[in-house]
Amino acid sequence: MPYVRSGSASVHFVTSDIAGPTLLLAHGFLMDESMFEPMREPLAAEGINLVTIDARCHGRTRTPDGESFSYWDLAADCLAVLDELGIEKAVVGGMSQGGYAALRTALLAPDRVQGLALLDTEATGCSPSELAFYREFFERWCGQEPMAPLVAELAPQLIGGTDPRQWREWTGRWYSGDRRAVAPAAQCLMDRRSVLHRLPEITAPALVARGSHDGNSTAQKSEALACGLEGADGVVTIPGAGHGAAWTHPEVVAPLLIRLMRRAVPRNESVLRVS
Hints:
- The protein has about 280 residues and is α/β, with parallel strands linked by helices.
- The protein has ten helices and eight strands.
- The chain has helices spanning about 40-45, 70-85, 95-110, 130-140, 145-160, 170-175, 185-190, 220-230, 245-250, 250-265; strands at about 5, 10-15, 20-25, 50-55, 90-95, 115-120, 205-210, 235-240.
- The protein has an eight-stranded mixed β-sheet, with helices on both faces.
- The longest helix is centred in the first third of the chain and has 15 residues, at about 70-85.
- It is globular.
- About 45% of the residues are buried.
């Protein structure tokens, strides 16, 4: 399996490894890179090289136990993966926390980010009420409370959609995984600072999309994100989807990503790799 060293982390990633423009996607909290697997084939059919990355404390990525990090570190991880693959420029994006990392990647290396795919995400930090909720929830998650009520509370919020069968792929992993291992990622989530004021620095074409029932990345937050980005053309709302629209509605999200790639990558720059 492909890994790259980034700081103290051993970062796991998957690539379609095709000769086309690259789209790097980062996943949401308590998920992993496989959430984008349903879109790999339709993107490949359009000649798009999909690279997906496991965040720290998620999937197969490994970090020292208990070590703290920020979304700026996750942005550096994205760049390290592109370096490992010899890819000079790419469209970068993600869902929720993956979008937090994507925005910071564009701020760290604007010359390398051809576009942004921002799915059910935002540019702000936690409000006091959100911070209070997260603190209480993660104390329960990382403590001794039975998992069943926590999972029943989390799955509709984090994934959404109308079919509970779409939750089982993830709820099974939550039950079998080490629930306390996400503590540094939870702290990263709560500690993040707003980058709303820095959005005018980003001029690349951008897709801002959200599920119509997403109670986390609300219509107001998505609108603020789109308004701050010069390259965004409003907010695309996906009917019936929740926070995990990329997982529950890949047949809707994939064409949006393909459209963004066509807009963001000039024909004569379709493949940019470093030797």
